Queue: 3 jobs
Job 1
Amino acid sequence: MKSMRTTLAVLLAGATLVAAAVPLKTDAAHSSVSATFKQMNVPVESNFKRFNAQIDYDPAHPENASAKVDIDTASLDMGQADYNKEIAKKEWFNSAQFPKASFVSSSIKPAGAGKLAVTGKLTIKGKTQDVSFPISVKAQGAQQVFEGQLPIHRLAFNIGEGDWKDTSMLADDVIIKFRVAAGQ
Amino acid sequence: MQRYTNTAIVLHWLVAVLIVGAFALGLFMTDIPGFSPTKLRYYAWHKWAGVTVLLLAAVRLLWRLKNRPPELPADMPLWQRQAAHALHNVLYVFIFAVPLSGYFYTLAAGFPVVWFGVVQLPVLIAKNQALAETLQPVHYWLNMGMAAVVALHVLAALKHHVVDRDDTLRRMLPGRSR
């Protein structure tokens, strides 16, 4: 009896270890992070060219999942080389002082088939906010594809200082969209 | 003397003012270094003006197809009549080609046009960096071509008015019809 209990405990511990599995490898070619904003009402979507997503996820134990995403703030591609240089400057991302924006999950809970409710801390330009947002997850071949979007307010992170605070020129609402494909 | 219809006169001068304004603004705004709200505002105005030219030019062309322009002075030599017709045709091509090239340029660059900040205009092509880099000089040189044709157009009109002292220019000026 005692040995059986031990066996069970070992098995459970083993299962937990498997559940907190090794992080998935992100497939950068099939992953993207973008910011969509409105400039004088014109919707503009721009991609972050460099980011690193680290996701622990086991479909059998989604509640044990965790995610950490680092985004290279100087890598936002506005479609024009001189605009890309501007965006790294002090009044925007201040990439010299804050090279990375990051998201670290604090809880991930299953929320129906193929859905997860994610809560965590978003840090941009040295300012941290608690955020929660839904994401979808689906298996695609050997990979898991995580997709979702997170609406934020750029002024809460001091993105666009001085004259750029004018929201009639550049709306406060920004939507961060992401797609991360990752597998073992 | 027979004048152009009031509709044609109004459309002509509206389009003329918008073309000169958008052309000057285009040269000016692209010379502003860096990135500022003012610069982006100028870009928006430039695009709004260009789209407006395109729209008015379409109305004008339709109007012209239904309303014969007044006759040229009777004593005008044949070669001048032919040159005038050819130049007007080329001018019409530019009036459409210049805003269209700009429209596709800005779409390729990933900045669709929201006319006067209100009307979202169709996004006909996806963002395409390589295409944007091709269309940028196309838009520039079409503008330079149009500027040359407009210069000829203005010089020819002034020549008729000042040298020949005929009614060619007056046909397009507002006034009481006689």
Note: The beta strands of chain B are 114-115, 119-120.
Job 2
Amino acid sequence: MSAQTATLKSKQELIEKWSQPEVITGSEMLLRSLVLEGVECVFGYPGGAVLYIYDAMYGFSDFHHVLTRHEQGAIHAADGYARSTGKVGVVIATSGPGATNLVTGIATAYMDSVPLVIITGNVATSLIGTDAFQEADIVGITLPITKHSYQVRNVEDLPRIIHEAFHIANTGRKGPVLIDIPKDVSAQKGLFKPCKEVNLRGYNPTIHPNMKQVDKMLRAIEEAERPLLLVGGGAIHSGAFEELYEFVTKTEIPITTTLLGIGAFPSGHELHIGLPGMHGNWGANMAIQNADLLINIGARFDDRVTGRLDRFAPKAKIVHIDIDPAEIGKNVPTDVPIVGDVKTVLQTVNRSVKRAAKADAWRAQLREWKAQRPFTYNDSDTELKPQWVVQMIHETTKGDAIVTTDVGQHQMWVAQFYPFNKPRSMITSGGLGTMGFGFPSAIGAQIGNPGRTVVSINGDGGMQMCAQELAVCAIHNIPVKVAILNNQVLGMVRQWQEIIYDNRYSHIDLAGSPDFVKLAEAYGVKGFRASNKEEARKAWEAALAHPGPAVVEFVVSKYENVYPMVTPGSAIDEMILGDGE
Amino acid sequence: MRRHTISILVNDQPGVLQRVAGLFGRRGFNIESITVGASEEPGLSRMVIVTTGDSRTLEQIQKQLYKLIDVIKVVDISATPMVARELGLIKVDAEPSKRPEILGIVDTFRAAVVDIGASTMIVQVVGDTEKIDAMVELLKPYGIRELTRTGVTAMTRGNR
């Protein structure tokens, strides 16, 4: 990969080369426009309706194309690339099944506000609407899960549409934008004029906050005796790490970070109280329920965070900072609405905000609560515990890896036992909860961050939903370190069936899974297996030391549950505490 | 729960009706009627949607609509004095012996007869929703063969 990177010309050179007006095909326009948008890498899978596009890519070296083994792998990889770099992820797929295979990935990105540009081919304009071979109305199918979408009818619209798509995807509340290109449009020639301006009357995200509301927030901070921050993915999307750090250290307001907000603030900091919500720590949930001022910064009061809504933060005045006005007041009635970009809002606030002076008793209380009941589990000498594995991975990567997760128990254990100190380091499908996301997203994260250790932690269920992408790791020598916490069961479903469905274990047994070491090796990827602590550490260290990709299967205990747990319908201070308690 | 009449200025793009109607559907907002047509500005269309909901629902409807890139402006015109009109066509059984009575009703409503067949008439009535409801009620005893209504279109009064 590094050799390929060297062949990329300097940006300026490329921009000059591709900025000249010229009569070219739609496919060539697409490639040039992508280069002009600064695209370095696209993930894709060819097929009939994108043959002209792939023909134009033959020998094209101004960005990389990564051929995945399934379109779903491609879009999750593009998503991992986008989340870990802050740049727009790009994916290309053909019409019909190629496009519909992207749907889960589009919805995943939409729920978590990830900027993607999705290029799909479609049948020729003359065939649209005739149920032609491999025709699907992908624009219609994806209307509810895209920020915006286009079907290109005129080749000369392409440069404008692509420029608009990148602008829309990566500004305001970010999200996926789909561009559907009928086959004849990709073949047709037209005059290529690079588009440099965006003129969208209906799209003007509010960046700067209303000063009246900011003043209200400042006053609320002054008066608060029990202030608390709830920080979500918006803080990371807006790149507000330094501003948030300044805000917290100036005000000394204790902070909780949601699943998607993990890394927005160093979790080792004494003011960091933890993770709120269904599997959050006791201290964080108690903090929310007792706060008299809750400042939400770029989180959306998701039901996994709030638990029972009518008993959420019952004593708190609510301040909500969000770039999407529709999030404010959607779930929780808000006292001080602040629409704006988190970074810009905090810059504004930081100019005049002061230490929350009345909150000393509260700070002491929260320190005590945090220490009183940290995340815990019953370790064992005979069985390998998944939580221990996550802690071991944290220790051996010095807490500095990019970690992608799949969805389920292991995802929560990563949130609980792998403390992060940097943004864009915990890559996880929070909103949609997409199994199969963990591994391919690591491929994208590694491509976007060649210098960092990228670890993908998966369950044995989710790993089998996109395992085919091991081929991509092997061929391009993408050194992702894949951990599989194999408990031979769909663990989170098992946990719910145990606790809520009276031990009626219905269809959760994953017996019959492949030997993951052999599976890795079948793709030419180094494989390891470990069943006890000693083996686990040894295998994991060997995997980290190995220069290429590696898979480590950890055979872990089957009956482990994620605690604390707030069952659906309960308020978040009604937690089931763990066995370790 | 209140009835709201929302006027939405949108780009005249393929699929824009689908985007707006789909948004209402998937977020559980009710549509009582929807009309679409050209606006005063080339390239833009205006939709008028009649919906019901409390003030929080209405706020969400407006905010969610603004998230659509093709939506330029959203106004709850029922919050201000407005003119709201719809048109109804009613095909009513009208044997020659009954016609004078029906014509009497039509005159009173300042409606019009726009077609006469051997035993039917088509009555065209324009007005607010209540007026058309009333007209329909009065014609029911004669036998309504077919009824079609445009849905409400509306604008604010005065200089706004």
Note: The first strand of chain B starts at residue 2 and ends at 11.
Job 3
Amino acid sequence: MLLSLLLLIPFLGALALILWPGSPSSARLRDVSIVLLVMQCLASFALLLPFDAADAGLQLVEQARWVRAIGLDYALALDGLSLPLVLMNGVLCLVAAISSRTIENRPRVYFALLLVISGAVNGAFLAQNLLLFFLFYELELIPLWLLIAVWGGANRAYAATKFLIVTAVSGVLILGAFLGIAFVTGTMDFSLRPILAGELGMTTQLVLMGALLIGFGIKIPLFPFHTWLPDAHTEASTPVSVLLAGVLLKLGTYGLLRFCLGLFPDAWQVAAPWLAGWAAISVLYGSLAAIAQSDMKRMVAYSSVGHMGYVLLAAAAATPLGLMGALFQMVSHGLISGVLFLVVGVVYAQTGTRDLNVLRGLLNPQRGLPLTGSLMIIGVMASAGIPGMAGFISEFLIFRGSLQPFPLATLLSMVGSGLTAVYFLLLVNRAFFGRLAIAPGEVVNPRILNRVALREQAPAIALSLGVLVLGLAPELLSNLSEAATTGLSLITGDMS
Amino acid sequence: MTIATTTELICFLVLSAVVVIGALGVVLLSNIVYSAFLLGGVFTAVAGLYLLLNASFVAMAQILVYVGAINVLILFAIMLVNKREDLKAIANLTTRRAVSAGVCAGLLALLVRVVVTTPWSLPGPPAVGEEATARIGEHLFTDYLLPFEVASVLLLMAMIGAIVLARRDVLATDVVTGEVADQGLIEKARTPLLMNRAE
Amino acid sequence: MTVGASSAATVAAAQRFQAAMPDMGASLLATQAMAAPGELLNLSLNASAVLPEAAVLLAMIATLLVDLAGEKVATRWVPPICYIGLGSSLVLLALQWNAPLEPSFLGAFLADNLAVAFRAVIALSTLLSLLISWRYAEKSGTPVGEYAAILLAATLGAMLLCGATDLVSVFISLETLSVASYLLSGYMKRDARSSEAALKYLLVGSAAAAVFLYGSSLLYGLSGSTSLDTIGLALQSSTTPLAALALVFVLATVAFKIAAVPFHQWTPDVYEGSPTPVVAFLSVGSKAAGFALALRILVGCFGAFDDQWKLLFTVLAVLSMTLGNVVALAQTSMKRMLAYSSIGQAGFVMIGMVCGTEDGFAAMVLYMAAYLFMNLGAFACIILFSIRTGSDRISDYAGLYQKDPLITLGLSLCLLSLGGIPPMLGFFGKIYLFFAGWANHQYLLVVVGLVTSVISIYYYISVIKMMVVKEPQEASDVVKAYPDVNWSLMGMQPLRVALIGCVAITAVGGILSNPLFQWANTAVAGTPLLQQAIALSSLKGLG
């Protein structure tokens, strides 16, 4: 029942917002949705109580027949892989709602869509039936499209449609693979169950897994399927960017671990060297492309492409340590990119630009944005993997876990990790250091920027604290998931 | 060969020749009045074929319905619309004719081949001769009752539809609001297709 | 093994099926072998099977009589008469559900579950089309009484077509449906577009009817009978080229009726020129009748030509899905866009037919039912929009959300459902079709279906984008001058009821779709014709 609560709260909440009588103000709607999301967040943290971290299997299973004819069951369950992601979804959706202060245009629809996304993502993380997962995976599509298309920047129509079509293609690939899994094995069964070696020819397995890989690779996104992400991020408003990077990309990596690795252990082993290579390319491409960007948001978006590549690398290695690192990376990337997007959002709101060629000296304590700048530096450090932050733990675990099976790919990814420091240093150096005004004719005049109220910084501060806490006490997370990731890796045989 | 079969064969050949030649005339003659009269001839000859097959009722129905009603109606239509109009010459008429002749010849060849190679379900039911009318009536009230009745609905509906389409409504209004209406599509924002293309 | 095969309903149906077969054989023998004079008259007609049609017929006659009293009286009384007629028809159909099978009219009609299901879809589509047409007809100044009568006649023809098991009945009911459709599409007689639509439809439709008649005559020549069962038996023993020719002719007619590419050319022009409520009926009711005819004739008669017609249908389905969905991208008129989309949707339904499995047929029935609600919901919205603005250009919908949230929400949900986005009803229907297709190894069809449904999402979404995303300052002129919403006019309330009903079922029906799935499965399980085909194809699969 607890798991269903995670779906009921957001979905019924969205319905309640739509049906809310009268014409409530934006602030009122925001308050209501914050209350709902706090409830959802509490409910997801309440999962920690009954959750047994030592058990690698499924817990709190809820199973009910839904549509028998197509084998669609309402099957929800929790394990160490999904629990951290559900927690992160709860936190980040709350953060997104709190930071949606400036939404004046159609707030009712906005907050309802936010709630729908949050519920759909919960559902996708908890679903134990392939079709149910697909249903939730597609369910988040239209709300997010609307969030970008209605509340986005100037070029939002193009970016939103691109996002929609590309993601719909990913959905189709995933559905095709799921149908294939159910029928080629002859079971007509959409429950999650690893496909054994003798059950299916290796070619068929590779084809099905390939379709899934590309489907999820679009969502993650991996090079060369990433082109929608920078556009979507650039046009989306700050809270939507937080959600997109923090939660929705994780659907892709979660699918990678749960369905590609989990269902096709043998085929995965065959494809692993290629996947590691793909991961390294994706990491290097993301990092190099980020260096070339002059828009702060685009730079952060490309950094996502790079950082998500690590997850593929770790998943390819499939060692217990690596998988733990992958999970850690998913969580820490969610938090870190949240911080980064929030800070970029504050900068944009204050200066009206995100162009690194224009911005100067924002850290200047007298006239700039000192607190914002500090938060940015924390985020950047975490992202670059400075010890003491969550990013370091995840990168260390990933590299440690995959160095032995794939030394070259891991080394290349390390180079990519070094490049992270390069482009983020560029960002901080240009936008935050230096004098406030460089030359006459700048867009940002050497005027004193308004002080940013503390409450507007609160979400970013909270997320940075989370980054620090996880960096200093990684066992908080690793204890939860160790059994699950170890269980997942053992399927592939002992490679560590 | 008895005299009966010989007579039958001769009748069949004559009637068939009338049907084929008449049908060709209907299609090929350029004067539509000739075509209409030839069509009447074809219908009558077909009725003769029915008689040869010992189906007197069908033959009578053929004459009454096709010759007596439909063909007369066609003639009426032709005479009422007695308007000489020079049609625009169609481009590449010869090529078009050649192509359609080719298609028709192909279809004919296909049909002939099929007819020759098919084991037809012969002999069909024995002819009932004198009794035919009674038997047809029987069928119309038993196993063909449904289509028989539906046909009456079809005719009723077609009649109503024809009246509605042909009736001259002098002034059309919206019954509820009393506003003047034009009996056209509500969606005015588009241009008619044919007129558009003709320009 | 199929998923639903183990259900108790199937077992019961199979028993009934076996029980029914000897009866049918006996009565067929009675009709086909020339019985002694007068003997036929003593056989029971079992005419109660067409009671639902009789209700429709009574409503039609009552409508015509009421119409004699003048236009004002007609406007007041015709709607309730139609509701009562179609409502009682639906109730009578419900009573026939799972009833013991007995051929009526000595083998001219059979009310098996398939027929009942499709007739219910048709009657419901007429009911909904009528609900949304009153205001449209009144505003255009066309007589309402005759409109309803002709539409009811079309319904009568379509419903009989679903259960007809005799070539003569099939042809007459097909013609009743077709002639009524021609009349309806030309009903706005002062409008050149409407007349053009009617003319085109008439010419192409008559050609199709002639081709069908030719094919039927060949079938009669082969078998010496007009009964579909006997023809089926005869074709099994003689698979001659002639039978193949007859197959092609019949198939062309079926394809014309369901508007499958390349027999679709009439669709866009007819849909654009016909009155919009008529288009709503044509796109659902007429299409459902076409599919019922396809099942009766192709599955019932041409079992021996299974591979051939399935191959042809595969080609038709691939072409329909591809062309329908791709060309729909370029449309600027809402009706034309829906016309092409309906071509694509017919392609999806054909996947189920090609499968020929229990799930395939059930998916067809289910998708037709789902299509009924989502398509008519969409039509209700665009009719409401055109009544208020006099336009059906897609670009005129820009910025509508501010002026009319009801249309915006309803149309968005219906279009999303047509595009197969969860959790709408259309998603479940489509996934069932793909499920059945994949289970039957129709990979090409499923892959094409998946790809084209992404394409379809694009054009459905662009309408939603028009309505929802455009800001008030970007709104079109007609939306800026949008009249105040007035529901009190006569004919507006039914429209609202139909709109809200369809949209609600489309939106919630997916989540609660299990009964609908069971209904579709029972429809297939209670149909001896389909069970035979399924048994045959599974035997083939084994051997």
Note: DSSP finds 22 helices and no strands in chain C.
